[in-house]
Amino acid sequence: MQDVCPAMSLGCFGSSRCAGPVSLDEFLGIVSLSLAVSTTATVIAALLGLPAGVALAVFSFPGRRALVIAVNAFFGLPPVVVGLALYLALSHSGPLGFLRILFTPAAMVAAQAILAAPIITALVHRSAERAWSRYGDALLNAGASRMQALPHMLSIARADVITAVLAGFGRTVSEVGAIILVGGNIRGQTRTMTTAIALQTSQGDLPLALGLGTVLIGISIAVSATVFAFAGRARTAGQDEER
Q: How far is C-alpha 199 from the chain's CA centre?
């Protein structure tokens, strides 16, 4: 019960550490924490997903197809289930309890990275697979090994790679279910834009919820516009190469 109490008391609606007016500094703190957690999680997911996605396209090994199917299946992982699994793993009685990061930004980063990594991996794999089918033989004939071909594939598909990373960021910055479980929505410590919007709406503080929602929408639109721009550039580059 000791692990459950912090989530219920510190993250609950209406607790002493949840209620009260929010200053401009706290508002900016919520926004900055959201961006810091989401950016860190996206970087970690990219460090895992980029090489994994390219490797799945370049290397042939037993079980590769099953692994590709699994990665694409994890594309739609339910955030609350991920949060619950990570909560159990990080609790005092869990296998990772010794880390003592439950209800901290580190746990939130871990949850978001788990959700974003399959997205980046799957999108990069699809792009790298197309690039490998077109340029793979040329690279191998030039004397490059498959391992040496990995960075070349990332370079060739760089527009799609950037799109995949931005899609991962869009996934993390809009997350609420997983991070509220492992972060606790603690005021001044683990409260992000999405969790604050849910809390303030339940408390009837619509101006603050709308203010945070406006910021979040602005970020989402910026990310979506950038993804669209890079996707269009990738399509144009592909058409030029075919000519």
A: 22
Which of 121, 129, 130, 195 has the alpha carbon at shortest distance from 165?
121
Q: Is 103 helix (H, G, I), strand (E, B) or coil?
A: coil
Q: For residue 63, give its domain range.
A: 4-235
Other CB atoms within 10 Å distance of the CB of residue 88: 16
Question: To which residue do tokens 């860190």 refer?
Answer: 40
In a domain, 241, yes or no: no
Classify residue 16 by its DSSP letter. Answer: T
- The answer to whether residue 164 sits within a structural domain is yes
In the chain, what percentage of residues exceed pLDDT 70? Answer: 86
Our count of domains for the chain comes to 1
Query: In angstroms, rounded to a whole number, what is the distance separating the alpha carbons of residues 199 and 184?
Result: 12
CATH code: domain of residue 81? 1.10.3720.10
- What is the spatial distance between Cα 50 and Cα 168, in angstroms, rounded to a whole number? 11
pLDDT-based confidence at 204, cuts 50/70/90?
confident
Tens digits of residue pLDDT in 40-93: 999 999 999 999 999 999 999 999 999 999 999 998 889 999 999 999 999 999
Cα separation, 123 vs 231, whole angstroms: 12
**What's residue 237's pLDDT?**
57
Give the per-residue pLDDT at 205.
85
> Could you tell me the CA-to-CA distances from 2 to 5, 50, 66, 91, 170 in Å, in that order?
5, 39, 40, 9, 34
- Whether 8 has a pLDDT exceeding 50, the answer reads no
Q: pTM for this structure?
A: 0.85
